[in-house]
Amino acid sequence: MYNAPILKKAIDIIKLMVKENKPLGVTEIARELSISKSTTFGILRSLEQEELVMKDIRSKRYIPGNGLFELSKKVLRTIDLKATARPFLERLVNFVDETIFLGVREDNRVRVLDVIEPQKEWRISSPVGTRFALTAGVMAKLFLSALPDEEIHTFLESHGLPRYTENTITDPSAFMREIEKTRAIGYAVDMEEYLKGMRAVGSIIYSAHFPVAVVWAVGFSSSMNDEKLPNIIIHIKNAAYQISGQLSPFVSQR
Questions:
Q1: Are 111 and 103 spatial neighbours (Cβ–Cβ below 8 Å)?
Q2: Which of 70, 20, 114 is CA-nearest to residue 211?
Q3: pLDDT at position 181, please?
Q4: CB under 8 Å, gap of 24 or more: what pairs does 160-169 form?
Q5: Residue 104 near residue 213 (C-beta atoms within 8 A)
Q6: What structural domains and CATH numbers belong to the chain?
Q7: Which pLDDT score, from 0 to 100, does residue 4 have?
Q8: Three-state SS across the chain?
Q9: Is this structure's pTM higher than 0.90?
Q10: How far apart are CA 217 and CA 238, in angstroms?
Q11: pLDDT tens digit at each of 254 positions of the chain
Q12: CA nearest neighbour of 239 among 100, 112, 88
């Protein structure tokens, strides 16, 4: 079978960036794939023009771009995300005994794909299809943490951080610290920041290292108390990891 050499190299570069899941420099990519630096740079420039990769101005390193993310979302539409996630969400609600949500980003909103409620009298509820502002509580921390810092700053300049409760983080610097924390620990917590008297814990679902959805649990602060929270965090992260594995069966999860 004939493979166009330059196309093969471009595909190898994209696959490497997805596999490594971190910013890579021209020298690193060239050395890892045994491609000359000039060829690597030329391919990256072409991929950047198509928004398949993007270059960090400060570090001069490359990461997967929005174009690649948009392509992955189109491919994912052929997979029933809700059906794939459902068995894991059903187990999750039994573990945490709080309402479980599955949601995806649509522009500057988050649309609820699925809701599973616990079997108890007092619980949180919201219809499937409900749309929340992207700036709302745990959803903001999760979805925005998957973006490069420059895009987050641009988003914050355009939309700000609305105050929902007295606990809402409205200072951009404090919010960016929350973003860094979310990236480091793999989950986010909402401590009555969106709705008074309610807490939430969530984690990101990936398809081949691309963030495609989030899963989060919501409960009353009296129920989702400090004693119960660590256990919920463990199960939320585990469910997100397992669903990601189902969506990316040939990609090692980190």
A1: yes
A2: 70
A3: 96
A4: 160/135, 161/135, 162/133, 162/135, 164/136, 164/137, 164/193, 164/194, 164/195, 165/192, 165/193, 165/194, 165/195, 165/196, 166/196, 167/191, 167/192, 167/193, 168/193, 168/194, 169/193
A5: yes
A6: 5-64 (1.10.10.10), 73-247 (3.30.450.40)
A7: 67
A8: CCCCHHHHHHHHHHHHHHHHCCCECHHHHHHHHCCCHHHHHHHHHHHHHCCCEEECCCCCCEEECHHHHHHHHHHHCCCCHHHHHHHHHHHHHHHHCCEEEEEEEECCEEEEEEEECCCCCCCCCCCCCCEEECCCHHHHHHHHHCCCHHHHHHHHHHHCCCCCCCCCCCCHHHHHHHHHHHHHHCCEEEECCCCCCEEEEEEEEEECCEEEEEEEEEEECCCCCCCCHHHHHHHHHHHHHHHHHHHCCCCCCC
A9: no
A10: 13
A11: 345 688 888 989 988 887 887 889 999 999 999 999 999 999 999 998 888 888 887 888 998 887 777 776 665 554 578 889 999 999 999 999 999 999 999 888 999 999 999 998 888 888 998 999 999 999 999 999 998 898 899 999 999 999 999 999 999 999 999 999 999 999 999 999 999 999 999 999 998 778 889 999 999 999 999 999 999 999 999 999 999 988 875 454 54
A12: 88
Let me know how long the chain is.
254
Position 249 scores a pLDDT of: 58
Neighbour-count burial for 131-142, b at 16+ CB within 10 Å, e otherwise: ebebbbbbbbbb
Structure-block tokens of residue 105: 């980003």
Return the structure tokens found at 104. Answer: 């995806």
